[in-house]
Write a structure and sequence with these properties.
38% of the residues are buried. The radius of gyration is 19 Å and the shape is globular. The two termini are 38 Å apart. The chain is built from eleven helices and nine strands. Helix 4 (114-121) packs across helix 5, helix 5 crosses helix 6 and helix 9 packs antiparallel against helix 10. A hairpin with a 2-residue loop joins strand 1 and strand 2 (13-18). The chain is α/β, with parallel strands linked by helices. The longest helix has 18 residues, at 225-242.
Length: 269
């Protein structure tokens, strides 16, 4: 893909890795472009169902590479209309993409500033027990322009998000789990392996239904209650009419899944 971003397919899971450990995987413009291209390609690739975003060398991502601004590798910040912004490249790369399939962040070390924005762009976050989150860009007058002020309040609630946004303080893994920023906390060094386990479990389910329910949950934020409820049914009927639901019901009738077998996995009942 590039010297800054690598791609590995493991079963039905695609692992996208930021390869700049010398700067804690800070993202400059070429890296942002490579990340964007990687996730555009993932979203249309029928051979993979789930993606994992991670960083090499014990860090997830330290945000935008501020040093890159000095030598012409500064991140791209462009004003776009509401109609234009969807699907466009963001300063950190893929953060304006509206994915059709799940993405998991495997977080070791620091996920701060733009790195935090990358992490909360993902659907789930598997977090090492020594990981650190924070709006560290607060210290340097660098604004959140990759969805941080939009996604963080929706994810953890307005009041807690304002605490993080206004103070720029550090949030450890335990607090991240408590406030809903982390999905799972795992031993240091195992975030990628545990994220792969989670991704593989998601990939075993009927994917039309997974993607439909995920889409309804995301779309509901921009819809009034009644419209969101109607949209849920609309998407659900597409799944039902595809035959996927009938196929699942037939497997159940024939004995699959009785007494809880085949349900859940290492992350829950």
């Amino acid at each position: 893909m590039s010297d800054n971003v690598t791609i590995d397919d493991i079963g039905r899971t695609r692992v996208v890795t930021i390869e700049r450990p010398e700067v804690r995987n800070a993202v400059d413009r070429p890296t942002a472009e490579a990340l964007y291209e990687a996730f555009v390609a993932f979203d249309v690739d029928d051979t993979v169902d789930v993606a994992i975003l991670t960083g090499r060398g014990g860090a997830f991502c330290a945000g935008a590479d501020l040093r890159g601004i000095a030598d012409g590798r500064g991140n791209r910040i462009e004003q776009r209309s509401a109609a234009e912004i969807g699907g466009s490249i963001g300063p950190m790369g893929p953060t304006r993409l509206d994915m059709s399939k799940p993405v998991i962040a495997a977080v070791e070390g620091h996920a701060v500033a733009g790195g935090l924005e990358l992490a909360i762009w993902c659907d789930l976050r598997v977090v090492a027990d020594d990981a650190i989150f924070g709006v560290y860009c607060r210290r340097w007058g660098v604004p959140l322009v990759d969805g941080g002020t939009v996604r963080l309040p929706r994810l953890i609630g307005h009041g807690v998000a304002m605490d993080l946004i206004l103070t720029g303080r550090s949030v450890d893994a335990n607090e991240a789990l408590r406030i809903g920023l982390a999905t799972r906390v795992v031993p240091s060094g195992s975030a990628l392996d545990d994220a792969l386990t989670l991704a593989n479990e998601i990939a075993t389910f009927p994917q039309r239904c997974v993607q439909s329910d995920r889409r309804s949950a995301i779309d509901s934020w921009s819809l009034p209650h009644e419209a969101a409820m109607a949209h849920e049914v609309e998407l659900g009927l597409i799944t039902v009419n595809s035959g996927e639901t009938e196929a699942g019901a037939t497997r159940f009738r024939d004995g699959e899944g009785r007494h809880g077998t085949g349900v859940g996995g290492s992350f829950g009942p």
